[in-house]
Amino acid sequence: MFKVFIDGSAGTTGLRIRGMLEKREDVQLIALPEAQRKDPAARKDALSRADVVFLCLPDDAAREAVALVENPDTIVIDASTAHRTSPGWAYGFPELSEQHRAAVAHGRRIANPGCYASGFIAIVYPLVKAGIVSSDYPFVCHAVSGYSGAGKKGIAEYEAEGRSASYDTPRLYALSLQHKHLPEMKAVCGLTRTPVFNPYVCDYYCGMTVSVPLFADLLNKPVSLAQLEELYRSHYAGQRFVRLGMEPGGFVSANVLNGTNELEILVNGNEERFLLTARLDNLGKGASGAAIQNMNIALGLDEGVSL
Q1: Phi-psi category of 249—alpha, beta or left, where left has phi over 0 and alpha has psi -120 to 50?
Q2: What whole-number distance in Å separates Cα of residue 145 and Cα of residue 244?
Q3: I need a labelling partner for 47 at 20 to 30 A (CA). Which of 74, 183, 269, 275 fits?
Q4: DSSP codes joined into one string, 114-133
Q5: Are 133 and 214 in contact (CB under 8 A)?
Q6: Which residues are catalytic?
């Protein structure tokens, strides 16, 4: 029986993790009374007694929580952005490479990827590894997400009665071209140039697409649409949750993978300009699902338990 403590279980990610773990017979959830959830001594005890800790907290609170963990064998899976580029932390995207999977399997500090970052990295990492693009390629990334990615406050705003009509439309944000996922997008892919990232939050609950266009004449070597498809098919061969996808009909919908831990990559465009798109549930492979998958791998279990 594995003892698990979710620090920050009232948020969207924490609630979904709890919902999945409550159905398992091999997990005992450590719960603190409401009055003790912010008590340092009580939290320190819970964090140190657990075999696995999920941190579903703001960045500063996540850093404070890590410092409270006294047991060196406790597996800490941080869903915040606090440790995604930190030395000594495994980046929890095991499908990227054998090295990433091994780091999760043997790590005791695992940084759960960001939702947008998961889509971007799933597309770009294989391109860089195969030498198709240079590290200084001028990447542009467009993405849309359901409003559940905006957190509790954002969800409340979208679901409020009498809300502004502006919430009815896709809303572009991160207008300064700064976003909390950019550091991991750049670091994990080994990029030297920061991408231009244009995210939209939209009036539906969850699901996302992350799209990266490429100019064929800016690549390091000639490739065709068919060769790009084969690149992704080969790179993710044998992976349960990441695969090459298809979308007949001329439209790519963002919500068809909702409720799953799956991520699909779709290759479109023409022989001069390519459009590469990742589709996933921002609460699944983009958050809670990935966290559970990382826990399973770190504990030596089948990675698909609960998923």
Answers
A1: left
A2: 20
A3: 183
A4: PHHHHHHHHHHHHHHHTTSS
A5: yes
A6: 115
